[in-house]
């Protein structure tokens, strides 16, 4: 019962991580203009994302421009696009697989099949968390390096936006969920190896009959 509850908790974490991954991938605020020095502009907020660049005005208007050219983008943005999409796909596969393998569901067949499904789903969650953690870390590193570079004017400096923090949190949820699913299946298999099922040996009727026949011969 405790293992089933733990798996359900991990499944909820994976759902939060999946939706957070999609939200972080689509949000345009991976980096925002930094309010430093003489660049304190309260009327305009400029944001840059993986797929579009947006400008928010204090009047409430919002304008965005899509990034159509892929080759003209920096390498870290191209890598972030690819890895975030892979993270979303892997987390979706993990949710489908663990739905079949969890103990609280009636899908997936026998106990061994459900255990293998849970382990496979946990691996998908771990890979999705790694794929989500790499681009956010790389993107944050580029922002910090540009911010500390003295040759870059203050008007061109940016800070990490909300999408980066959402990506970090989502990757953490997916990693925790994957570890829980994999460890629960590993403990189960380890217990089966340490305590194998007892085999009961019953004397065969054929041996009894042969034994009786031999005793009659000696009489």
Detailed description of the structure:
Residues 1-24 form the signal peptide. It is found in: Cell junction, Tight junction; Cell membrane. The chain has 219 residues and is an alpha+beta fold. The chain has a domain at 4-27 and 71-194: Butyryl-CoA Dehydrogenase, subunit A, domain 3, CATH 1.20.140.150. It has five helices and five strands, in the order αββββααβαα. β2 and β3 form a beta hairpin. The longest helix has 38 residues, at 111-148. Mean pLDDT is 81; it is low at 189-196 and 205-209.
Summarize this entry quickly.
This is Claudin. By secondary structure, the protein is α+β, with helices and mostly antiparallel strands. It is built from 5 helices and 5 strands; from the N terminus they run H-E-E-E-E-H-H-E-H-H.
Global mean pLDDT: 81
Based on the coordinates given, report the CATH architecture of the domain at 4-27 and 71-194: Up-down Bundle
Order of helices and strands: HEEEEHHEHH
Characterize the main sheet: 5 strands, antiparallel
Briefly, what CATH class of the domain at 4-27 and 71-194?
Answer: Mainly Alpha
**Low-confidence blocks of residues:** 189-196, 205-209
Q: Hey, roughly how much beta strand do the residues contain?
A: 5-15%
How would you describe the shape? elongated
- By DSSP, the count of extended strands is 5
Rounded to the nearest angstrom, the radius of gyration is: 29 Å
Membrane topology: Multi-pass membrane protein
Transmembrane segments: 84-105, 117-139, 163-186
Protein name: Claudin
Function: Claudins function as major constituents of the tight junction complexes that regulate the permeability of epithelia.
């Amino acid at each position: 019962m405790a293992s089933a509850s733990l798996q359900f908790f991990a499944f909820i974490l994976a759902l939060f991580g999946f939706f957070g991954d999609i939200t972080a991938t689509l949000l345009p605020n991976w980096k925002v203009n930094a309010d430093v020095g003489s660049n304190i502009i309260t009327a305009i907020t400029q944001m840059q994302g993986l797929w579009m660049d947006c400008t928010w005005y204090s009047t409430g208007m919002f304008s965005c421009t899509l990034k159509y050219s892929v080759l003209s983008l920096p390498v870290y943005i191209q890598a972030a696009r690819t890895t975030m999409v892979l993270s979303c796909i892997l987390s979706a596969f993990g949710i489908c697989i663990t739905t079949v393998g969890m103990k609280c569901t009636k899908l997936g067949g026998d106990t061994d099949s459900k255990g293998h499904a849970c382990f496979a789903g946990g691996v998908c969650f771990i890979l999705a968390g790694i794929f989500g953690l790499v681009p956010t870390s790389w993107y944050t590193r580029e922002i910090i390096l540009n911010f500390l570079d003295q040759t870059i004017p203050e008007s061109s400096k940016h800070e990490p936006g909300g999408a980066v923090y959402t990506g970090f949190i989502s990757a953490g949820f997916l990693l925790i969920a994957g570890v829980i699913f994999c460890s629960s299946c590993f403990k189960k298999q380890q217990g089966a190896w340490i305590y194998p099922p007892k085999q009961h040996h019953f004397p065969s009727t054929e041996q009894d009959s042969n034994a009786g026949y031999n005793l009659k011969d000696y009489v």
